[in-house]
Amino acid sequence: MILNCGEALIDMVAGQTRDDQAAFVPHSGGAVMNTAVALGRLGVPSGFFAGLSSDFFGTQLKAHLQKSHVSYDLCPISDAATTLAFVQLVNGQAKYAFFDENTALRGLSQNDVPDLPDEVNALFFGGISLAYGACAETYETMLMNAAETHVTMIDPNIRPSFVRDETAFRARIERMVSASDIVKLSDEDLEWLAGAGDIATNARALLAKGTKLVLITQGSEGATAYHNDYEVFVPTVPVDLSDSDTIGAGDTFNAGVLASLHEAGLLKKDAIAQLSKEDAENAVAYGMKAARITVSRKGANPPWKSEL
Fold this sequence. Notes:
Blueprint: E1 2-5, E2 9-16, E3 22-29, H1 31-41, E4 46-49, E5 52-53, H2 56-67, E6 70-71, E7 77-78, E8 84-90, E9 93-99, E10 122-126, H3 133-146, E11 151-155, H4 166-179, E12 182-186, H5 187-194, H6 199-208, E13 213-217, E14 222-227, E15 230-235, H7 249-263, H8 269-273, H9 277-295
Parallel strand pairs: 1-4, 1-10, 2-8, 4-6, 5-7, 10-11, 11-12, 12-13
Antiparallel strand pairs: 2-3, 8-9, 13-14, 14-15
Helix pairs in contact: 1-7, 3-4, 7-9
């Protein structure tokens, strides 16, 4: 099983009523939950770990996980509220306003961390859950404790406006990135972390710190995998965004990469360290194929395996 550790929330997506009044429609979302759902739909044993609420939005999230064959048995359930993210689309790109104070997500603590079941062989971390608070510290501890024996992957999915203590956040992400086997960053994330400069140079600097595989996505251009022995670029197939959006694209890409490695029997620490160029290219291509389907429709709606 791949255990996905991070936020589940409700995306309140802007829309209109039948009489053209402004409205927001609640969609199940959250970067890490999107990856967990995408993995479940791609036929990979998928688990999810975060604080979930007993409120009606929490019930919606649990139903969404269950429908996509994702286990949430390890999640602590509380009566704290569910995180809400109000979403507006500008030229197909999502702009967010978060309501996250005193929520079930933020209340996650070290005391909530379970012993990892034997079937867990890989862990994925990321999203706004790493921005601040007790939950961010809890997830860092989980990654550090698991990194010696399990494959670990991180996608910080950085939202600078969400970061409260930039110094602490940068230090946390650097520690987690250095300890992870696989790191995925958008080109914007990479620039925020490493500063302006050549993408390949900055990506290889992460390899020098201990990461085994660095994946850099560049929006409509494509994505590149960097390994100590090679780099390989996979271009994007253009998608018409006139009646869709990019919500969940990167999250689905992450799931596709992990699913490809899982299917090939490569979710092992030594296998990632020695990953062939062909296997890396296959993983990136599968991730992009899955993400393209998500981008072709509204909201974070990852594909089922039969669609690929």
